[in-house]
Amino acid sequence: MGLREVKRERTRRLIADKAFELFTDHGFGRTTVEQIAAAAEVGPSTLYRYFPTKETLVLEFVEDCLVDAVTWFREQPGLDLRTVCRR
Fold first, then answer.
1. Cα(55)–Cα(70) distance, integer angstroms
2. Pairwise CA distance, residues 68 & 25, whole Å
3. CA pair distance 15, 57, nearest whole angstrom
4. What are the extents of the domains in the chain?
5. SS3 of 18, please?
6. Interacting residues of 35 by C-beta distance below 8 A, sequence separation 6+
7. Which long-range contacts (CB under 8 A, 24 or more apart) does 76-79 make?
8. Model-level pTM?
9. pLDDT tens across 13-64, in order?
10. SS (H, E, C) 9-36
């Protein structure tokens, strides 16, 4: 990954982390895009380039949690996710 991509990912992660902190502290409905942008030290237009809506910030968090959970399950010895996840 080149320097530009590293910086983009770092900015994306910072925006998502700051958004989650603000959502946790103030609630989703009371947190504005402007507050998130200020906390991440970017402009609102930059934030929108990474996340078109506030809802996509929540989806980013959910996706990260799911990836972490699957990774954790895969690291458990003797655990077969195909048998655990059957309905």
1. 23
2. 23
3. 8
4. 3-84
5. helix
6. 22, 26
7. none
8. 0.74
9. 999 999 999 999 999 999 999 999 999 999 999 999 999 999 999 888 777 7
10. HHHHHHHHHHHHHHHHHHCCCCCCHHHH
Kindly report the CA angle at 40 between 36 and 43, in degrees rounded to 5? 75
Amino acid at 61: F
CB 15 within 8 A of CB 40: yes
For residue 17, give both structure tokens. Answer: 């982390």
The DSSP secondary-structure symbol of 52 reads S
Identify the CATH homologous superfamily for domain 3-84: Tetracycline Repressor, domain 2 (1.10.357.10)
* Whole-angstrom distance, CA of residue 66 vs CA of residue 82: 16
